[in-house]
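Re: your question from the hallway

Yes, I did run it. Sequences:
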Amino acid sequence: MTNPQASKPKAEAPGPKEDIAEAIAPATRLKLFRSQLEIRYLEKRAYDLFLQNLVKGTSHLALGQEAVAAGFGVAMRSDDYTFCTYRGHAHTLVRGVSMAGILGELMGRDCGLTRGKGGSMHLTSVEHGVMGSYAIVGAHLPIAAGAAWSARYRGTEQVAVCFFGDGATNIGAFHEALNLAAVWKLPVVFVCENNLYMEYTSIETVTAVAHPAADRASAYGLEPVLIDGNDVEAVYRIALQALAKARRGEGPSLIEAQTYRHGGHSRADPAKYRPRKEVDAWLARDPIPSYRQRLLALGFSESSLAEIEQEAQRAVDQATEQAKASPVPPTDIAGRDVWASGGSEWRN
Amino acid sequence: MAELTYREAVAAGIAQEMQRDPRVVFLGEDVASAGGVFKTTEGLLQKFGPDRVRDTPISEQAILGVAMGAAMTGLRPIAEIMFSDFLAVCWDMVANQIAKTRYMTNGQCSFPLVIRTANGAGFRFGAQHSQSVESWAMAVPGLKVVAPSTPADVIGLLAAAVRDPDPVLFFEQKSLYATKGEVPDGEHVDELGKAKVRRAGEDVTLVALGAMVARALEAAERLQSENGISATVVDLRTLVPLDTQTILSEVKRTGRLVTVEENPRLCGWGAEVASIVAEELFYDLDAPIVRVTTPHAPLPAADNLEDFVLPSVEKIVDRVRMTLG
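Structure:
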């Protein structure tokens, strides 16, 4: 463990110990492996497409942070809700959204999830429970709480899972949402991906506590939960527990997953503010090679893993071709869907 | 027909919709147990229970965020922001989240929600509890903006707002809460985007909103009796969608337009109305368009100062006389 903050976890995960000890089924492990790979390859492809000037605007990649989205994606029920941030390609993909829909959106093509009207920072696929990617830091925490309230009111046992970065823990909406969700005992799981940097500034230099999410949990009567966000099985287990707790009507959870982004904050950021040693240490903890090692040690065959790698790469290649072949959206959609009527009229 | 206060009409309007549709839920600060700081929501908790009528902490971002999340997943929330000035605290939710997300998702999500708020001056509360901010909302694509001037319109337009599939900002003018008016018996549902001609005249068209409607009507009576000037008074009722047909047809007939606005001058809704009339009816105008507004300044607290800055009946009468030479 090279991250000093991770060396002293505040608490064990909540819930019965036997859940933690229970073995994860082989098929589930392969899903966790595949899901991480799909994210990795898709994000790398998004980066390559920038370099080819086929992706415009900005984009925030989850390279290095794959385990958090993958662990939750595999644990969630298909009708649960996801609310994520502008760094949301991964959280969108893990709900079963098509890669071509994601890449097409990044490329401003008609096949994009929102036909180019949202862009990289606003990936949404309601049919997959992906209720939006939100680009104002912290704004989606109260919105996720609202979806959770609605789910409970309607008696559906759906849970809202809300992913956000460490930077969001210092904005008012974070605290408003945590308090309300705790008071109302809402079925919502708040997942802080602490990658140690907000944008360009280290979170610890601007935060009063060492663990920006976990150390705030007690203020809202919640258990502090600090996990290794680069360990996909740790994420998966905690996700199962938090989801089950929410479905039992026992209220929200706040999980801090420690992780690291391999690249900069966004396309424009070479991330030169990070010490080389720190970067190297975290690259050595890359969630994907370490999980591959673990699976081999558990007896999965090299060929079965290599096959998954090839399939994931092929899927990204095919999606890339599909997105490239898609036309740009027709300009008439620019004025559509301001209102539920489909139009944008503001006068008669 | 029964007579209700504007205040009682708020609770009656909410109750009508909650009775009709179990998806309608209501949340805000002090709205449940206390019945609202303006006593506009008394009895709702008792009638509909704590699952549907909820007190929140003083957390405006949470109130509107929760309303948004609930709306996009099948409920039809009514959220109260106690004073409209407080919308500034949660403007991200209003302007970036609720207003834009339908568009950004290419129509995948709907936001059938109503944000009710007490707007405007008249209580000597000072600058942070008195401003008329409906023009802020009007400037944001994706929001519908409603401001009733009578108890009947409170019920009818609130019902229309709750049933509308888009987010509606519903501005209750707090100086009107004690005013009384007839309301129709039984279910009452009006239509968004339709102005009402409250008084028909020949010489000049006064366009007003909220509390300014009654002042424009009083000014019109004085102009009639003192100067023989016959004024039309249009109550806009809805800023978005804007009923330009009614505005244009009345101004075309009278040849003169005076807007009466409680909001501060710059970029008030009257500027948009004036711009539309100037663009589309220029050659039908007999005089320059006039806007009567509060000055471009925060609102003062003292009785005489607050009265001094608001558009008074005298000010409206004076400005109308000037446009008629």
